[in-house]
Write a structure and sequence with these properties.
With 137 residues, the chain is an alpha+beta fold. Helices cover 28% and strands 25% of the residues. The chain contains three helices and five strands.
C-alpha cells in the first residue's frame, strides 16, 4: 500500500491512501493548532483499535453482542528516556459476557497485526527523490 504524506499548512501533516486521509497536527505548545491528533497519538490509537477489531471479530463469530465492551489502553514509559516501555490493554467486559470466553477474548486481542509488528519490527529505509522523477530504491 502506498501512502502519500503532505503538508497542508501550519504543523499539519496528512497521510493519504486509497479514499482516506488521516490528518495530524501538533498541539499549540508544539507549534500547531491542535486540529487533529499528533502522529504519535494516531500511532498509539492504531494499537487499541487493532486489538478492538480482533475482539469485535471474536464476538461476531460467536454471536456475542459487543455492546458494553470497551478497551482501555494505557502506557508505562521509561522515566529516563520517555519511551514507551509497556502498552496495557484492559478489555472491559459487561457482567453478562460469558465467563467461558474471557481467556479466549484476550487471546483474540493478542493476535492484533499492529502488535505483531512490534514483535518482528520492519526495517526502515529513508531516501530522497525529486518530484516527478521515478523513485529508485
Amino acid at each position: 500500500m502506498e501512502m502519500v504524506i503532505d503538508f497542508p499548512g501550519g504543523a499539519r501533516v496528512d497521510s493519504h491512501f486509497g479514499p482516506y486521509t488521516v490528518a495530524t497536527d501538533q498541539p499549540p505548545h508544539g507549534g500547531g493548532q491542535g486540529s487533529a491528533p499528533t502522529p504519535f497519538a494516531t500511532f498509539l490509537a492504531s494499537i487499541g483499535t487493532c486489538a478492538g477489531i480482533y475482539v469485535l471479530g471474536f464476538c461476531r463469530q460467536r454471536g456475542i453482542s459487543a455492546e458494553g465492551i470497551r478497551i482501555v489502553q494505557s502506557l508505562q514509559a521509561n522515566p529516563l528516556n520517555g519511551m514507551v516501555d509497556k502498552v496495557l490493554l484492559d478489555i472491559q467486559l459487561p457482567p453478562e459476557f460469558p465467563e467461558k470466553y474471557k481467556a479466549a477474548v484476550i487471546r483474540s486481542a493478542d493476535q492484533c497485526a499492529v502488535k505483531k509488528h512490534f514483535e518482528y519490527p520492519p526495517q526502515f529505509e529513508i531516501s530522497t527523490s525529486t518530484v516527478g522523477e521515478p523513485i529508485v530504491a
